[in-house]
Amino acid sequence: MDYKECWHLQETLFQRNCEIKLNNRRRTDGIEDPTIDYLFFVEHPHVYTLGKSGDIKNLLLDEEGLKHVGASFYPINRGGDITYHGPGQIVGYPIFDLEHYFTDIHKFLRFLEEAIIRTLARYGIQAGRIDGLTGVWLDGDHPEKARKIAALGVKCSRWVTMHGFAFNVNSDLSYFKNIIPCGIDDKDVASMHIELGRPVDMQEVKDILLKEIVSLFEADYQRVI
């Protein structure tokens, strides 16, 4: 799905939930309209996105360079710095009302990381975290070998979230050479297919990842697509 199209869809659902919550707080009859949580798993055409706290210098391509590699670029309203999305990568967009679960944005990020860590474990890939750095890492205890396999960046308002994570499954990692990923210039990136030495079934990974997210958040869900 085109990044801009998906961003617009996210914004529409995000704003709808925020408006429902605002209207509920204004009501005097004690009746509240429910918000609805959404979770999208998407693959995008090649695109670079820069978070609101990011540095444009971390994009190493000019306009002509972007055309040459067939990628687009968007400055967006999530946290974090610059990252890449493209084919073979699961981009997850949880548009959650955290008041359904817990009102703690750090716990929310840790749950998303944990779902990816557990998914990787199902394939025999040991992953974890690095103190002070958001995301999911391989060999995080060895700074000279540490590499990021999933990046996170979210926006939250009225405890409603949008944006989310990017999980490298069959990603072309050469596209990361055109940026300083997340503004970190001394760490590498990783993808499942390289760690396993074979292509990975994307739908299988999505199914496992969905189950892990549902389990961690203790949520009910209905698959739409």
Describe the structure.
With 225 residues, this protein is of the alpha+beta class. 31% of the residues lie in helices and 24% in strands. The chain has helices spanning 3-26, 63-69, 105-121, 192-196, 202-217, and strands at residues 38-42, 47-50, 72-75, 82-85, 89-95, 128-130, 133-138, 147-157, 160-168, 188-189. Strand 2 (47-50), helix 2 and strand 3 form a beta-alpha-beta unit. Helix 3 (105-121) crosses helix 5. It is globular, with a radius of gyration of 18 Å.
Layout of SSEs?
Layout: H1 3-26, E1 38-42, E2 47-50, H2 63-69, E3 72-75, E4 82-85, E5 89-95, H3 105-121, E6 128-130, E7 133-138, E8 147-157, E9 160-168, E10 188-189, H4 192-196, H5 202-217
Parallel strand pairs: 2-3, 8-10
Antiparallel strand pairs: 1-5, 2-4, 5-9, 6-7, 7-8, 8-9
Helix pairs in contact: 3-5
The rounded distance between the terminal residues' Cα atoms is 13 Å
Q: What is the fold-level CATH name, i.e. the topology?
A: BirA Bifunctional Protein, domain 2
Helix share of residues? 25-40%
CATH superfamily: Bira Bifunctional Protein, Domain 2
What's the alpha carbon Rg, rounded to whole Å? 18 Å
Number of strands: 10
SSE order, as H and E? HEEHEEEHEEEEEHH
The main pleated sheet reads as: 7 strands, mixed
Report the top-level CATH class.
Answer: Alpha Beta
CATH architecture: 2-Layer Sandwich
Rough outline: globular
Mean pLDDT: 94
> From the helix content, strand content and strand pairing, which structural class follows?
alpha+beta
Count of helical segments?
5
Please, how many domains?
1
Low-confidence stretches: none
Quote the beta fraction.
15-25%
